[in-house]
Design brief:
Layout lengths: L1 E5 L4 H12 L3 E5 L9 H11 L3 E4 L6 H6 L1 H22 L2 E7 L22 H16 L3 E6 L2 E2 L6 H10 L4 E4 L3 E2 L2 E2 H13 L4 E4 L6 E2 H11 L6 E4 L1 H4 L14 H7 L6 H15 L1
Parallel strand pairs: 1-2, 1-3, 3-4, 4-5, 5-10, 6-9, 7-12
Antiparallel strand pairs: 8-11
């Protein structure tokens, strides 16, 4: 299977590209310098030349607070960029797998969100990711839209590594305990994405590690796993005064993707232990 991957310099691609190679697939990663997804010509040309079975569209602007002050950029990258990836897939006879976010939901639910639950993003970032979803669907190309959440893993900036860096330096930690979500390990997510593509699935799926946590619980577990004796204090979202509103509860129900891919993802706590151990071995 030939796969073209946008956002090749990002966190998710860092896990997916090696997974594709290990599975014997022919993968080509495109960085922003090689094919800016906001400018379709280079992307379409790359897809025509490579003729992939799938375009995995990972390129995105995920700085949630910055999106509030630069909404045009957010919608161009996350909305128009997804449309351009879908059009490139249509031009080359490919399917497109586009990654979306739990932030398309408003967090008012008290049970894990299903694929068919109404969306109501609270901030520009979530609205721009929903616009990208809709743009992909409207092209009519065969597609997979995979919503995931709270990514951590090797090879890119993420919350867990930021917490461990601060804890390792002895910095005080204060983390919100009033937002709950689905922490997800990129190597586990990569395997699930490959299984969905190999099975030629289509439609919209939620794909996350099992279980749920608050940011405080995730940070505390990371510090414990790393053996760092640093206290993680609790705070609340209002105290941070950040520009973008966050959903208080954005846990995703992944039962559809588990059935379609043939296996559930492990628990986030198991994944966290593996991530911390891998980072320790790498050092």
């Amino acid at each position: 299977m030939k796969v073209l991957v946008t956002g090749a310099g990002g966190l998710l691609a860092h896990a997916v590209l090696p997974a594709l190679a290990a599975a014997g697939h022919d993968a080509r990663g495109l960085t922003r310098a090689e094919a800016d997804v906001t400018r379709p010509d280079a992307l379409i040309a790359a897809a025509r030349a490579f003729r992939p079975a799938w375009i995995f569209h990972f390129a995105a602007w995920a700085k949630v607070d910055d999106c509030e002050s630069q909404p045009d950029r957010a919608f161009v990258v996350n909305g128009l960029g997804a449309r351009n990836a879908a059009l490139a897939a249509a031009e080359s006879g490919s399917a497109v797998l586009a990654v979306s976010s739990d932030y398309v939901f408003d967090g008012r639910s008290r049970s894990p969100y299903r694929e068919y639950d109404p969306v109501a993003p609270l901030q520009v970032y979530g609205a721009s990711k929903w616009a990208g979803e809709q743009a992909v669907r409207e092209t009519g190309v065969r597609h997979l839209i995979v919503r995931t959440a709270w990514l951590f893993g090797p090879g890119g900036g993420n919350f867990v590594d930021a917490i461990l860096k601060k804890a390792g330096a002895g910095e005080p930690l204060s983390v919100v305990d009033d937002q709950r979500g689905s922490p997800t390990y990129t190597p586990d997510l990569a395997k699930a994405l490959l299984r969905l593509a190999e099975r030629a699935e289509n439609g919209t799926y939620h794909c996350v590690n099992s279980g749920e946590a608050s940011w405080h619980e995730l940070a505390s577990a990371a510090v414990r796993a790393a053996g760092l004796g640093v206290e993680v204090r609790r705070t609340d979202t209002a105290s941070l005064g950040r520009p973008a509103r966050r959903p208080a509860y954005s846990v995703l129900n992944a039962s559809w993707s588990e059935h379609a891919s043939g296996a559930p993802l492990p628990s986030w706590s198991d994944a966290l232990d593996r991530h911390v151990n891998a980072a320790r071995e790498a050092r």
